[in-house]
Amino acid sequence: MNLLKRSFYNRPASIVAREILGAHLVRLIDGQCLVGMITEAEAYQGEEDLGCHAHYGKTRRNAVMYGPPGRAYIYFTYGMHWMLNAVTGQDGSPAAVLIRAIQPLEGLDVFEQNRPNLAHTPHWLDGPAKLTQAMLVDRRLNGIDLCDPNSELSITPGEAILEENVTKTARIGLYTVPEPWKSIPWRFVIKMEKGRPRDEIQK
DNA sequence: CGGCCGATTATCT
DNA sequence: GATAATCGGCCGG
Questions:
Q1: Quick check: is A196 in a domain?
Q2: Separation in Å, CA A157 to CA A1, A2, A38, A128, A137
Q3: Is the CB of A40 under 7 A from strand C?
Q4: How far is the CA of A32 from the C1' of B12 (A)?
Q5: Is the bond into A180 cis (omega within 30 degrees of 0)?
Q6: How far apart, in whole angstroms, are the C-alpha atoms of residue A183 and residue A97?
Q7: Could you give the number of structural domains in chain A?
Q8: How many C-beta atoms lie closer than 10 Å to residue A139's C-beta?
Q9: Strand C closer than 7 Å to the CB of A201?
Q10: pLDDT (tens digit, 9 = 90+) per residue, A77-97?
Q11: In this model, does residue A202 exceed pLDDT 70?
Q12: Does residue A1 form part of some domain?
């Protein structure tokens, strides 16, 4: 399988968050292949970024972010939700990209079973906790290598998205984070029409 | 559609 | 002991 290489992830998080749009998130489970196109992502870059979990320094939770790029950093929040990130930047420098939304492509029956709410509507898998529920992503996959074709979770190149079809905004949910981190435009979203990307999204 | 609010618990100070 | 990279339900427009 043709996967995004480690060199893809070994760049600043804001670059990876933009470039990962259109890529295909692939989940292998019970002999099935679940696929979704990444349509929204956010960058979290370094201990100086007060919106990033690494701003406390290294802890047990965020340790994976301090490791090599191309691994999954998965954490639990709000007492009930799992969030999926791809670790970015060089080994030792903590940074990651939060995968916030996917467009379902393969395994729709499984997605529907795991995530019946809003199934087959434009808002089906457009949230970071929605997609982890649909793809059965939780703590067990924390630290998994996204660049290994044998992994239960990986990412393929998918489609390249034109700049004119990308919206940039401040990151979501950083209520108590001070400026400038609260407003820095490190959220990247594919422009959607009626719940689908525009027809001409490829470069 | 947009805003407010409660749920629920691992993780951190 | 407080907080949280969210979600869904309920309300008003």
A1: yes
A2: 10, 7, 10, 20, 20
A3: no
A4: 37
A5: yes
A6: 17
A7: 1
A8: 10
A9: no
A10: 999 999 999 999 999 999 999
A11: no
A12: no
- Could you tell me the CATH number of the domain that includes residue A32? 3.10.300.10
pLDDT given at position A200: 54
Strand C contact with A118 (CB < 7 A) = yes
Any domain includes A47: yes
pTM over 0.90: yes
On the CB side of A18, how many CA atoms lie within 13 Å of its CA?
14
Distance A171 CA to C3 C1' (A): 18
Note the CA–C1' distance, A202 to B8, in angstroms: 42
DSSP state of A127: S
Alpha-carbon distance A191 to A169, whole Å? 12
Q: State the CB neighbour count (10 A cutoff) for residue A114.
A: 16
Tell me the pLDDT tens digit for each residue of A148-182.
999 999 999 999 999 999 999 999 999 999 999 99
Strand B nucleotides within a 7 Å radius of protein CB atoms: 7-13
For A105, the domain range is 6-202
Pairing relationship of beta strands A95-106 and A81-87 according to DSSP bridges: antiparallel
- Report the alpha-carbon distance of residue A71 to residue A144 in Å, rounded: 5
Q: A155: part of which helix (H) or strand (E)?
A: strand A153-156
